[in-house]
Design goal:
By secondary structure, the chain is α+β, with helices and mostly antiparallel strands. The chain folds into three domains: 6-138, Butyryl-Coa Dehydrogenase, subunit A, domain 1 (Orthogonal Bundle), CATH 1.10.540.10; 144-241, Butyryl-CoA Dehydrogenase, subunit A, domain 2 (Beta Barrel), CATH 2.40.110.10; 253-395, Butyryl-CoA Dehydrogenase, subunit A, domain 3, CATH 1.20.140.10. 52% of the residues lie in helices and 15% in strands. It is built from 13 helices and eleven strands. The protein has helices spanning 6-12, 16-20, 31-48, 52-58, 65-72, 89-102, 104-124, 127-138, 250-284, 296-325, 330-355, 366-378, 383-395, and strands spanning 80-81, 84-85, 144-147, 163-167, 170-181, 188-195, 198-205, 211-215, 227-237, 286-287, 290-291. It has a four-stranded antiparallel beta sheet with strand order 4-5-9-8, covered by helices on one side. Strands 3-6-7 form a three-stranded mixed beta sheet. Strands 1-2 form a two-stranded antiparallel ribbon. Helix 7 (104-124) runs antiparallel to helix 9 and helix 9 (250-284) runs antiparallel to helix 10. The termini are far apart. It catalyses: glutaryl-CoA + oxidized [electron-transfer flavoprotein] + 2 H(+) = (2E)-butenoyl-CoA + reduced [electron-transfer flavoprotein] + CO2. Its cofactor is FAD. It comes from Saccharopolyspora ipomoeae. Residues 31-141 form the Acyl-CoA dehydrogenase/oxidase N-terminal domain. Pathway: Amino-acid metabolism; lysine degradation; Amino-acid metabolism; tryptophan metabolism.
Length: 401
C-alpha cells in the first residue's frame, strides 16, 4: 500500500475516525474482544501483509505459518477442551475478519483446519479421536482437511458417489473428492462417504495406501492456498476410523455452517482492506491539481464502500451474538454469507477502479481480494444455494428440485 503523504494525512486528520469506523462499532465490542482483534491484526501486519503478494504471485502456501497461527491461538479457537482456546463466536469472527484482511487463502486455512476438520472431530469423534488429533491440530503441528465435495456432487452432496463398505471389522473406501483444501499437506482427512447405514464420516490417514491428493493448478483465485483432488482407491480403514457421533448429511452440514459463519466476518475483512487501500491511494494520487479523493465521483465510491462495510459488520456482529446465545438458525447464516460476500466482492472491484491501471498490480490488494472472493462466493454454498435456503425460510416452500 502506498504511504500517505504529509499533505494527504493532514487532509484526513479531522475525519480519520469516521474513515476507519464511521458508526463507532467498536463501542459494541468488549475490551477482551477488541484486544483479541488487535492481536490478530498485528499478526497479519507483521506475518502476512509483507509477504502475501509474493505468496500469491508464486501460488505458494506458506507451510511455516501453520505453527505461528497455532501459537496465535486461532486454530479451532471456538472449540473447548483438548488444547483448543474456547473463545466466543464473536471473537472467532473478529479473528476471521482480520485474517481475511490479509488474504482469503490464509483465512481459508484457519477455516478448513478449525471450522471443518477440527469441528467434525470435536462434534462427532470419540474421546480417543479427539485426544489423538485435536491438541496437535490446535497447535498447528498436525493439519486436517475435510472431504465432502466431489467432481459430480458440489451443491448436491446427497448425490456423492464415494462409498465405504464393511469388510470384516474394517472399512474399505473408494471414490473421488474435489476442491479439498489442504489435502496435499494434511495429516488426516475427514472423508464423508455413503455406507449401508447412510452418510458417515471417517478419519483417514493421508499416508494410507490408496489415498492420493493432487493440488489443482493453475488457479486464478486463492493462489496462496491449497485445493486438491483426492482419489480413494480401496483405502482400508480400521473400525475406529469412523466418527461415531453422527449419521447422515446433518454431520457435514453442521460443520459447513461453522465455516460459513467465519466467512460472514472474513468477507468484511477483505472489503475493509480494499477500501483502505483505495482511500489511501485517493489521498495521495494527484490529478488536475488536487488529490482524487477530492473529486465527487471518488467520494461517492468511497461512501458506498463505507455504507456496506459498516452494515456488513453489523450483520456479522448480530449473527455472532445470536450464535453465542445459542439462538442462531442455519438460514440466518445464509443471510450473512450471501449478503457479505456479495457486497465484499463489489467493494473490492470498485476499489480497484479508484486505483486505475495501477490497481491491476500486486502492489495493491483490491484485485487480489476480488479474485479470491470469486472462490469465497462459491464455496461453502454458492450464492444461488444460499438464496434458495433463504427463500425456503421465507416462503416455507423448498425450491431445490
Amino acid at each position: 500500500m502506498t504511504t500517505a503523504t504529509p499533505a494527504a494525512t493532514g487532509a484526513r486528520s479531522a475525519t480519520s475516525g469516521l474513515a476507519e469506523d464511521y458508526l463507532e462499532l467498536d463501542a459494541l465490542l468488549s475490551a477482551d474482544e477488541i484486544a483479541l482483534r488487535n492481536r490478530v491484526r498485528a499478526f497479519v501486519g507483521s506475518e502476512i501483509a509483507p509477504h502475501i503478494a509474493e505468496w500469491y504471485e508464486s501460488a505458494a502456501f506458506p507451510r511455516e505459518i501453520t505453527a505461528k497461527l497455532g501459537n496465535l491461538g486461532v486454530l479451532g479457537m471456538h472449540l473447548r477442551g483438548h488444547g483448543c482456546a474456547g473463545r466466543s463466536a464473536v471473537e472467532y469472527g473478529l479473528a476471521c475478519m482480520e485474517l481475511e484482511a490479509g488474504d482469503s487463502g490464509l483465512r481459508t486455512f484457519v477455516s478448513v483446519q478449525g471450522s471443518l476438520a477440527m469441528s467434525a472431530i470435536h462434534k462427532f469423534g470419540s474421546e480417543e479421536q479427539k485426544e489423538r488429533w485435536l491438541p496437535g491440530m490446535a497447535a498447528g503441528e498436525l493439519i486436517g482437511c475435510f472431504g465432502l465435495t466431489e467432481p459430480t456432487a458440489g451443491s448436491d452432496p446427497s448425490s456423492m458417489r464415494t462409498t465405504a463398505r464393511r469388510d470384516g471389522s474394517d472399512w474399505v473406501m473408494s471414490g473421488k473428492k474435489r476442491w479439498i483444501g489442504l489435502a496435499s499437506i494434511a495429516d488426516v482427512a475427514v472423508i464423508w462417504a455413503q455406507t449401508e447405514d447412510g452418510v458417515r464420516g471417517f478419519l483417514v490417514s493421508t499416508e494410507a495406501p490408496g489415498f492420493t491428493a493432487t493440488p489443482i493448478e493453475p488457479k486464478l483465485s486463492m493462489r496462496a492456498s491449497i485445493q486438491c483432488d483426492i482419489e480413494l482407491n480401496d483405502v482400508r480403514l480400521p473400525a475406529e476410523a469412523v466418527l461415531p457421533g453422527v449419521t447422515g448429511l446433518k454431520g457435514p452440514f453442521s460443520c459447513l455452517n461453522e465455516a460459513r459463519y467465519g466467512i460472514i466476518w472474513g468477507a468484511m475483512g477483505a472489503a475493509r482492506d480494499s477500501y483502505e487501500a483505495a482511500l489511501t491511494y485517493a489521498g495521495n494520487r494527484t490529478q488536475f491539481g488536487q488529490p482524487i479523493a477530492g473529486f465527487q465521483t471518488t467520494q461517492h465510491k468511497l461512501v458506498d464502500m463505507v455504507l456496506e462495510i459498516q452494515k456488513g459488520t453489523l450483520v456479522a456482529l448480530r449473527i455472532g451474538r445470536m450464535k453465542d446465545a445459542g439462538t442462531l438458525k442455519p438460514s440466518q447464516i445464509s443471510f450473512g454469507k450471501l449478503n457479505n460476500v456479495r457486497e465484499a466482492i463489489a467493494i473490492a472491484r470498485e476499489a480497484r477502479t479508484i486505483l486505475g491501471g495501477n490497481g491491476i498490480t500486486l502492489e495493491h490488494s483490491p484485485l487480489r481480494h476480488a479474485n479470491n472472493l470469486e472462490s469465497v462466493m462459491t464455496y461453502e454454498g454458492t450464492s444461488e444455494i444460499h438464496s434458495l435456503i433463504m427463500g425456503q425460510a421465507i416462503t416455507g416452500l423448498p425450491a431445490f428440485r
